[in-house]
């Protein structure tokens, strides 16, 4: 997708550089400037090119959509001041036999040049903004299609692997009736497993779920893992959220939690898995930290692939609004995910 975005941007840039600006220079007022005051014409051309590329670099559509009005006001003021300063460039005076006429004609000429420069600046700025908005719309459509395709693939994978949910849950209920009374630990494990399975089935068609549901899912997953693990493994699970009704995509943390238990548990040595979730003022932070104790070769191969899939999903769901960092030092693997949900 990155290469496609790059090619699209390159096409717009080449069109501006070799077609749009030359046409503006040939058919616009600038064609008269090259013979009369070439240095000013050069400065104006460089400034107009810079206006286009700086406007693109600043991603003004994103600032507008995110309502960053203060930044937009500052950028607009800087452009206006620079354009105004360029109109003050000292052009050579117009020579007439009558000195007063020379002064008058010079003022008229300077006024026309200033108006022309403002006009060309406005045209270039409008073109740049149009290109930026078209690119932003195009990228959002691409991301939406990618997210939809990934969702469809996930649904297809579940549908291929699943038995009829009605039959499955009826069977689980029957098995639970056989487990009752045999062992409290077995009952607890069965209940946790059923809740996890039910959550996975019921959320597959949902684009978003409440954060409270995701927290319950993680809690059930941890509880189920702790039932099978011995005292060597300690799990520190903390969460602090100021609004548990906040909507997030379902099972977005699952890969990180699964990896922590898959590679960070041991039956022969003490180990700790740290899982932290925080939501404050719309900023979500999720962290897992664990030692790499098992399947080291598989960890080196499988984890990067899984993380890359997570990055693709996050890029489609939260473009420019998330950060996924991973570090490994002294056999300790840490994942930090930050998402701006505002």
- Summed over residues and divided by their number, the pLDDT gives a mean of 79
Query: How does the helix and strand content classify structurally?
Result: alpha+beta
Strand content: 5-15%
Strand order of the largest sheet: 2-4-5-7-6
Q: Low-confidence segments, ≥5 residues, pLDDT <50? A: 160-164
> Which term fits the overall shape?
elongated
H and E order: HHHHHHHHEHEEHEEHEE
Helix count equals 11
Report Rg: 31 Å
Number of domains: 2
Entry summary:
Helices cover 66% and strands 14% of the residues.
Note down, in words, how this protein is organized.
- This protein has 342 residues and is of the alpha+beta class.
- The protein has two domains: 2-156, no CATH class; 231-340, Heat Shock Protein 90, CATH 3.30.565.10.
- Helix content is 66%, strand content 14%.
- The protein is built from eleven helices and seven strands.
- The protein has helices spanning 2-27, 30-36, 38-58, 60-65, 69-87, 99-161, 165-179, 184-202, 211-228, 254-263, 296-317; strands spanning 209-210, 233-241, 247-248, 271-280, 283-291, 322-329, 332-340.
- The strands form two sheets. It has a five-stranded mixed beta sheet, with helices on one face. It has a two-stranded antiparallel sheet with strand order 1-3.
- A hairpin with a 2-residue loop joins strand 4 and strand 5 (283-291).
- It is elongated and about 115 Å long.
- It starts with a helix and ends with a strand.
């Amino acid at each position: 997708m990155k290469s496609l975005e790059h090619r699209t941007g390159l096409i717009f840039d080449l069109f501006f550089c070799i077609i749009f600006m030359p046409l503006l220079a040939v058919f616009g007022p600038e064609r008269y400037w090259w013979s009369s005051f070439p240095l000013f014409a050069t400065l104006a051309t460089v400034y107009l090119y810079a206006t286009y590329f700086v406007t693109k670099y600043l991603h003004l559509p994103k600032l507008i959509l995110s309502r960053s009005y203060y930044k937009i006001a500052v950028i607009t003021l800087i452009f206006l001041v620079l354009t105004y300063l360029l109109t003050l460039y000292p052009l050579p005076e117009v020579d007439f036999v009558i000195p007063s006429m020379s002064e008058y004609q010079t003022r008229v000429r300077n006024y026309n040049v200033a108006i022309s420069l403002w006009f060309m600046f406005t045209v270039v700025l409008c073109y740049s903004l149009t290109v930026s908005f078209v690119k932003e719309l195009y990228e959002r459509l691409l991301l939406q299609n990618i997210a939809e395709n990934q969702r469809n693939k996930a649904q297809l994978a579940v549908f291929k692997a699943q038995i009829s949910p009605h039959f499955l849950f009826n069977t689980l209920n029957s098995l639970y009736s056989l487990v009752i009374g045999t062992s409290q630990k077995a009952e607890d494990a069965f209940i946790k497993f059923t809740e996890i399975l039910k959550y996975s089935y019921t959320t597959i068609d949902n684009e978003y779920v409440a954060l409270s549901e995701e927290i319950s899912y993680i809690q059930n997953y941890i509880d189920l893992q702790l039932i099978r693990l011995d005292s060597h493994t300690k799990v520190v699970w903390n969460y602090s959220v100021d609004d548990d009704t906040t909507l997030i995509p379902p099972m977005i943390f699952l890969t990180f939690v699964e990896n922590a238990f898959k590679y960070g548990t041991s039956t022969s040595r003490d180990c700790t898995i740290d899982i932290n979730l925080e939501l404050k003022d719309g900023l979500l932070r999720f962290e897992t930290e664990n030692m790499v104790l098992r399947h080291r070769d598989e960890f080196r191969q499988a984890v990067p692939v899984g993380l890359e899939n997570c990055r693709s999903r996050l890029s489609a769901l939260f473009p420019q609004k998330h950060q996924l960092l991973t570090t490994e030092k002294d056999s300790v693997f840490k994942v930090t995910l930050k998402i701006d949900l505002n």
